[in-house]
Design a protein that fits this description.
Radius of gyration: 22 Å
Strand content: 35-45%
Strand order of the largest sheet: 14-13-12-11-15
Shape: elongated
Order of helices and strands: EEEEEHEEEEHEHEEEEE
């Protein structure tokens, strides 16, 4: 077999009927017939029995007016896919919707030295992200790293730059709050701020 690097569309692709799948939503299960290009190509190749990888990145982001960061899945390498395609399936593979028919061969040495270690790293990251999701660990889902600079948008510390420490939630708190360090009167003090009242400082 030979490994290839394929170029895909990043737009949504309508999948063949036999590849429609269900996703869980707040309204229950819904049938999905479209998927982002890289993931749609991966699904089609795997349906042919081909080992294919469109690496996914799971990040925790707070969107809109939500206080909690939520998992967001995106393509690690937008517009690209790796696949180990046997010669007898090559003609079918290049007909997948959303895949450019011109594939680049990846040498065995490159696969061993770069591709497989990268895919292993992604798999480990995703396993950790899934562990956080399954445990509903809101603190671990925080989108800020310790020490990150945050701009306070409202409240008594409005306009100040603080340094993120942790997400904390006391028994009487309705939701987790950001714990940070702020400089006041020449000293570093600990402050707590509503997640809606901060953004990453430029």
């Amino acid at each position: 077999m030979t490994w290839y690097l394929g170029i895909t569309t990043t737009k949504k692709v309508t999948l063949p009927r036999h590849l429609h799948f269900e996703v869980e939503t707040g309204r229950g299960a819904e049938t999905v017939s479209q998927e982002r290009g890289e993931f749609a190509v991966e699904r089609q190749l795997r349906a042919l029995g081909i080992e294919a990888f469109a690496p996914r990145k799971i990040e925790f982001k707070r969107q809109g007016k939500k206080r909690y960061a939520e998992p967001v899945t995106s393509a690690y390498l937008p517009g690209y896919i790796f696949a180990d395609i046997p010669p007898e399936l090559f003609a079918q593979a290049v007909q997948c919707r959303g895949l450019n028919a011109s594939l680049m061969t990846v040498s065995g040495q490159e696969v061993r030295r770069h591709v497989q270690p990268f895919l292993s790293k992604v798999s480990e990251e995703n396993a950790e992200a899934q562990r956080i999701i399954d445990s509903r660990d809101r603190a671990a889902m925080c989108q800020f790293e310790p020490g990150a600079a945050l701009e306070v948008l409202a409240g008594p510390f409005m306009g100040r730059i603080v340094r993120f420490s942790d997400m904390v939630q006391a028994a009487h708190d309705v939701h987790p709050v950001i714990e940070a360090r702020a400089e006041m009167f020449g000293q570093s003090v600990r402050v707590q701020i509503d997640p809606l009242d901060v953004k990453g400082a430029a």
